[in-house]
Amino acid sequence: MSILVNTSTPCHGLKFILFGIVWLIYNALHHDLNKAGPTQTLYREKRIPERVVHAKGAGAHGYFESTHDLSDITSCKLFTSVGKKARATVRFSTVGGESGSADTARDPRGFAIKLRTEDGNLDWVFNNTPVFFLRDPAKFPHFIHTQKRDPQTHLKDADMFWDYLSQNPESAHQILILFSDRGTPDGYHNMHGYSGHTYKLVKDDGNWVYTQIHLIADGGFKTFDAATAGKLAGENPDYGIQSLFETIEARKYPSWTVYVQTMTPEQAESFRYNVLDLTKVWPHKDYPMRPVGKLVLDENVQNYFAEIEQAAFSPSHTIPYLEPSADPVLQSRLFSYPDTHRHRLGRDGLMAINNQGARPGYQSTIAPLTYLKYKGAINGSPRDYERAAKHETWIGGAFWDLSEVTELDFEQPRALYQNVMNDTDRDHLVSNIAGHLGNVKSPVIKARTLSYFASVDQSLSNHIAEAIGAPNAKPLPVKPVSEAISFRANVNKAVKL
Ligand code: HEM
Q1: Element (H, E) at 92
Q2: What are the Catalase core domain coordinates in residue numbering (predicted)?
Q3: Among residues 110, 299, 463, 494, which is most buried (max CB within 10 A)?
Q4: Residue 52 pLDDT > 50, yes or no?
Q5: Residue 161 and residue 163: Cα distance in Å, rounded?
């Protein structure tokens, strides 16, 4: 300081002193921001784009614990040693609404789980419904655009919604679930989760089975009726976030029992439906639920933005011996999620998501990485694995055409309506559909949608027609079951030739 004063006039000296004080204050503040990592993130990164779908969400941390040994069907380390644990991060979400939309909106719920296993991250990017609206990935952008806002009015549009669905009736199964009270769950943690897609559990000797994964909420699947969900949407749009956070704070940790259903490739050949068709469920009596483990959420986040909003889940984040099947929708998702992550979270610079510290950016296929630096990079433990035998690609008739809608597509929604739902469920279904379909302006779309429901059950359609004051409609003209089955038999024959 004295040097500054001595080498300047008194006036300049004062300026330097003032400058020094400002500099010290600035550095003190800056230092604080740098020290408080989450605060810094909050200030700088708060405005990444929201997810293009599943924008509104809630999340927490916890763990998965294996409770049963599956070594007869897989060599996946997580499922072959009872008591093995993996830390978990879970993000629940609605699908169609923006990030400020109501948690109790009628919508499927996302149930995305990241498990940090000894073999790397395993993401289960599941929904709360066992089926989906489509089985052809090319339809997905069209479908999603009909669930979002109209490009001109910027309004959600009932005509657009039902126009798409009634022209793509493989969606009927999912629509019946969505318009039941399961479409409005009580919060995010009182619901089940499902892979929906068929996956493969593989063994070291090359054997494998198809599998469907289920997470069954230990407290049961709790739902709201439409009136309660609508009231909450106005009074507390963040109901789901709040109830998840408060439940964990109160140490009433939400938990799920994880099950798998399995099917051998040979069984898949005689399965009534295409094993890759994610609009279908596998009957539990034929393909029993086998317990695997528990998922428990026991830790709230410290920084929502850093730990949940910036999380990136993808079905392509998987571990050895748990593989995606050839389901084309699942196959398309393997690429779509990392792609959107680069857009949403960035590739290089401040928002880099692909760097893994000093780890080399490649994976060795047949032997552990021999690159010298790697040894020190991640405690020297290679993530690679070597399998005793390669498994064959199955090319049986179970891969038959997925594009055509036939009478087979109405069997499961019909059974749901006629045999699984009770009278109250059916009443709610009719009034929930009527409440939405009643907003459609086009008589053509209304009539086609009533035909769509008549294909499921004529009385369901007639009840909806009565509720919206429209004439009764006949079922859609589709190929009968006998033709659908004989088509498949021909595919089978062709494959065996
Ligand atoms: C989120 C695409 C089908 C479950 C997303 C996102 C995209 C996407 C782009 C945003 C991801 C992000 O920003 O991080 C697709 C495509 C599908 C499809 C192209 C079909 C062709 C499905 C299905 C399921 C599902 C069938 C469930 C079985 C989810 C979940 C999220 C999500 C849970 C939210 C993940 C999170 O919380 O970060 N999807 N999706 N999606 N999707 Fe899909």
Answers
A1: strand 85-94
A2: 27-370
A3: 110
A4: yes
A5: 6
Chain centre distance of CA 65: 21
What is the CB < 6 Å shell around ligand 1?
Answer: 51-54, 57, 91, 93, 110-112, 125-127, 132, 137, 140, 196, 312-313, 329, 332-333, 336-337, 340-341, 344
First to last CA, the chain: 93
**Ligand 1 center to 164 CA (angstroms):** 19
Predicted TM-score of the model (pTM): 0.87
Ligand 1 midpoint to CA 328 (Å): 14
Positions annotated as catalytic residues are 54, 127
Residue 290 β-bridge partners: 260
pLDDT tens, 309-334? 999 999 999 999 999 999 999 999 99
User: Taking Cα atoms as reference points, which of 195, 204, 174, 169 lies closest to residue 74?
Assistant: 204
Name the residue of 48, 50, 53 whose CB sits within 8 Å of the most ligand 1 atoms, as the mutation to test its pocket.
Answer: 53
Is 164 marked as binding a ligand? Answer: no
DSSP code, position 308: I
Does residue 5 sit in helix, strand or coil? Answer: helix
Position of tokens 């995305």? 112
The answer to whether the Cα torsion of 37, 40, 44, 47 is positive or negative is: positive
Ligand 1 pocket test, pick from 125, 171, 330, 342 with the greatest ligand atom count within 8 Å of Cβ, gives 125
Q: Are 112 and 125 contacting, i.e. CB atoms less than 8 angstroms apart?
A: yes
Condensed to tens digits (0 to 9), the pLDDT of residues 336-369 reads: 999 999 989 987 777 777 776 666 666 655 555 5
